[in-house]
């Protein structure tokens, strides 16, 4: 048996799989997020540990015999968070999360520092880890001076499980302290961020053992004392492992709270000015690139709150098949935007509203706006030299065939809907554990799920959607000017 743990912003999921990688049992537990000031987003790591305790207790009660056969554990976690520990391993302050924007000034300064983009392979976004520590240095100097180690959320869970400080490459690539091409901490980047090498965890590949389960946890959970804990992964890299997106051009469109267009890369080909993320993959010798929009299904959820109609009902009003773009235009910048704008200040907008605008037109505009933003991501990724050729559509928004067909037509690519099953970040973490335990190679273990349906682009509507996207793209500078 193998255990995958996926620490998301809203909760933790524990997934038990067998030696064939088939899910055996799954438990989810929620975690609370605090917003102590506008633009701030924090979480107490004690929430994660408590959620893990509850999840493991439930798994032990349900599958005690299977838990006794667990050989390895992998952890996936939300990226970029800063967990600051003192010399005794104690948490100094709540974790500053990926969606916290307080360090926008520090991010801009670090991004403008000579050599930073070249070594990190990325724009330094406000959500990254390095600017958070510079913010602490300026605003919480006493806590900053006591920082002995900085861990990402998955790295902190590794520490809790093993007592050792280690992290994987994919997660660490989102700190702006890692030389992403060389897959190692950069002295120059650390110095630019006012940090030291001894404050960093040891680096391992995601499918490489980093430590063994602490004896007291093994005893509590009915496991043997030789259970290994692998490096694990950042959440998107883990999701890519879960759907077999390792190689060049293979990837997914994820319609979750945020939107992600991700592809594997067989080499290192950064282009920071495009606002595409270029990160190490969770397996050796591979990288991945992704464009990120900050509000995908979150845009539809926002419209749902405004109208008092559920997202599913809004989607159902449009049917399943597209018939061309609407005149109403929506810009999904409800929380700013990453790819391709790197703009934390821009905000969303509706354009071309008139007295005849109804709810269905607004829903269509929201879905099209997200599709146009995903086209922005595809254009940015394409500028790095990769050709997208095999994409899955995943996430809650993929339940809307209308939305998937809109995106397929906008991208000019077929999108595969996977067969019903479990293929998320928790499965990716479990697969990393399987490779670490010697069950097989990444290519053997991290296979693509079966395809239930392929949504083809509507070739006869491609010209109309292309024209609408160009109009959408031209509105950003004007909207930015007044927000």
From TrEMBL:
Substrate binds at residues 79-80. Catalyzes the phosphorylation of D-xylulose to D-xylulose 5-phosphate. Its EC number is 2.7.1.17. The record marks 6 as: Important for activity. Residues 252-436 form the Carbohydrate kinase FGGY C-terminal domain. It is an enzyme of class 2 (transferase). Belongs to the FGGY kinase family. One of its GO terms (molecular function) is D-xylulokinase activity. PROSITE patterns: FGGY_KINASES_1 (PS00933). This is Xylulose kinase. It comes from Pseudoponticoccus marisrubri. The active site is at residue 235. The keyword Kinase applies. The keyword DNA repair does not apply. Keywords: ATP-binding, Carbohydrate metabolism, Kinase, Nucleotide-binding, Transferase, Xylose metabolism. Residues 1-242 form the Carbohydrate kinase FGGY N-terminal domain. The gene is xylB. It holds the Pfam family FGGY_C. GO terms for biological process: D-xylose metabolic process; xylulose catabolic process. It catalyses: D-xylulose + ATP = D-xylulose 5-phosphate + ADP + H(+). InterPro entries: ATPase_NBD, Carb_kinase_FGGY, Carb_kinase_FGGY_CS, FGGY_C, FGGY_Carb_Kinase, FGGY_N, Xylulokinase.
């Amino acid at each position: 048996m193998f255990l995958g743990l996926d620490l998301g912003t809203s909760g933790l999921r524990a997934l038990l799989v067998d030696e064939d990688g088939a899910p055996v049992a799954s438990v989810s537990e929620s975690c609370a997020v605090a917003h102590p000031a506008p633009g701030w987003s924090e979480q107490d790591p004690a929430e994660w540990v408590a959620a893990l305790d509850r999840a493991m207790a439930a798994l032990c009660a349900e599958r005690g015999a299977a838990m006794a056969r667990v050989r390895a554990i992998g952890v996936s976690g939300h990226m970029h968070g800063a967990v600051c520990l003192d010399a005794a391993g104690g948490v100094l302050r709540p974790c500053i999360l990926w969606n916290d924007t307080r360090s926008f000034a520090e991010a801009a300064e670090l991004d403008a520092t000579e050599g930073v983009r070249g070594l990190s392979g990325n724009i330094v976004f406000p959500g990254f880890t390095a600017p958070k520590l510079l913010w602490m240095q300026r605003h919480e100097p006493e806590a900053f001076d006591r920082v002995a180690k900085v861990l990402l959320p998955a790295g902190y869970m590794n520490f809790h499980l093993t007592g050792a400080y280690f992290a994987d490459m994919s997660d660490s690539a989102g700190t702006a302290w890692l030389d992403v091409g060389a897959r190692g901490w950069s002295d120059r980047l650390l110095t630019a961020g006012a940090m030291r090498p001894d404050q960093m965890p040891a680096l391992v590949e995601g499918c490489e053992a980093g430590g063994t389960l602490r004896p007291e946890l093994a005893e509590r959970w009915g496991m043997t004392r030789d259970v290994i804990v692998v490096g694990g992964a950042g959440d998107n890299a883990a999701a890519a492992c879960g759907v077999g997106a390792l190689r060049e051009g293979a990837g997914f469109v994820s319609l979750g709270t945020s939107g992600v267009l991700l592809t594997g890369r067989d080499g290192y080909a950064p282009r920071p000015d495009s606002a595409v993320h270029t990160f190490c993959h969770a397996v050796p010798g591979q990288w991945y690139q992704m464009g990120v929009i900050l509000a995908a299904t979150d845009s539809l959820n926002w419209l749902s709150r405004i109208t008092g109609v559920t997202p599913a009902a809004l989607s159902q009003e449009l049917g399943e098949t597209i018939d061309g773009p609407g005149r109403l235009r929506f810009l999904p910048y409800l929380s700013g935007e990453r790819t391709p704008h790197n703009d934390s200040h821009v905000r969303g907008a509706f354009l071309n509203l008139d007295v005849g605008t109804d709810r269905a037109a607004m829903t269509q505009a929201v879905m099209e706006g997200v599709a146009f933003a995903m086209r922005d991501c595809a254009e940015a990724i394409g500028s790095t030299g990769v050709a997208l050729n095999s994409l899955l559509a995943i996430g809650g928004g993929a339940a809307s065939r209308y939305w998937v067909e809109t995106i397929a037509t906008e991208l000019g690519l077929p999108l595969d809907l996977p067969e019903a099953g479990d293929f998320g970040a928790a499965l990716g973490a479990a697969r990393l554990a399987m490779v670490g335990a010697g069950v097989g190679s990444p290519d053997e273990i991290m296979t693509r799920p079966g395809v239930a349906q392929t949504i083809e682009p509507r070739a006869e509507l491609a010209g109309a959607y292309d024209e609408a996207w160009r109009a959408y793209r031209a509105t950003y500078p004007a909207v930015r000017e007044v927000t």
